[in-house]
Amino acid sequence: MAEKFTKSMARNIYYGGSFFFLLLLLGLSVDTVRQLPKREHREALTEHVIAGKGLWETNNCIGCHSLMGEGAYYAPELANVFDRRGAGNEAAFKSYLRGWINAQPLAIPERRKMPQFNLTDAEIDDLADFLIWTSRIDDNNWPPNVEG
User: Does pTM top 0.70 for this prediction?
Assistant: First the structure.
């Protein structure tokens, strides 16, 4: 190697490194696109799941809760709420969620308050369907603890 670091050498390192990392980005992007069909379950999307996602967005649930690690950390993670509170029973989970949402805000001192959204039972069931659907996405065991 030369004793002096030249502009030409710096340029070659810059372009070579940029090209390498561009190829790495493209390779990882292709790998992600190939893996998505195995991880998601798009075929399980129903009108109720889509309506539940609409409620999730309209009521800005992500402003307090996180879903698969995305969102605010003010309230619990909801990617695994069906596993925690429904134990695999969809009817029991919908009943639990109706009771929980209709009881808000809880009158417990010094506890964070969830607002009352005045959702109908059908809307809560749609939201439950959305949360059940998200709980079945392969998210590499997120969140790392059971309680979110």
Answer: yes
